[in-house]
Amino acid sequence: MAETYLSDFGTILLFLIGGVIFVIIGLFTSKLIRPDRPNAEKLTTYESGEEPIGNSWVQFNPRFYVVALIFIIFDVELVLLFPWATVFGRRELIEATDGVWGWFSLIEMFIFIGVLILGLAYVWVKGHLDWIKPKPVVPQSRSRIPMDVYQRVNEQRKQLSGNNKQ
């Protein structure tokens, strides 16, 4: 018994070692075969066909990530629906339980899809599916300081920043 136990782990270890060696050989072969002619245009960052402008450490709009996460959630839902349909739709299981199995699986999937629909409704109500969001409303506050004082301070700052750049 102990020998088969160790030989099973040995088989798994051989597969892991073989997989690592296969990947290393593939990467080494592609490095030898591929052309290596870097230039300035090939070394620039590339994002969806847009020409990079400025520093690469700019912040991306978080809506890209929200849309990607929503897509992944519904993609996983589809991945879970196919095995559910094949396992729970087996006629012999439904007949063996007098239809209870079929009703159980149907109610279970309605609950699953219902939770996803609630999540979609929440995201929709919050406006995360709207690509162009309305500009935030700037609160209007009353100040005892006149507006022309703010304008003078802003002009002085502009002049100081203009002098610092030179």
Structural account:
The protein has 166 residues and is mainly alpha-helical. It contains five helices and no strands. α2 (63-88) packs antiparallel against α4.
Brief description of this entry?
The chain is mainly α and 166 residues long. 66% of the residues lie in helices and 0% in strands.
Any chance you could write out the topology, listing elements then pairs?
Elements: H1 2-33, H2 63-88, H3 91-96, H4 100-126, H5 147-165
Helix pairs in contact: 2-4
Q: Please give the number of β-strands.
A: 0
Beta-strand percentage? under 5%
Cα radius of gyration in angstroms: 31 Å
CA-CA gap between termini: 83 Å
- Helix and strand string, N-terminal first? HHHHH
pLDDT < 50 stretches: none
Question: What keyword list fits this structure?
Answer:
5 helices; 166 residues; 0% strand; mainly alpha
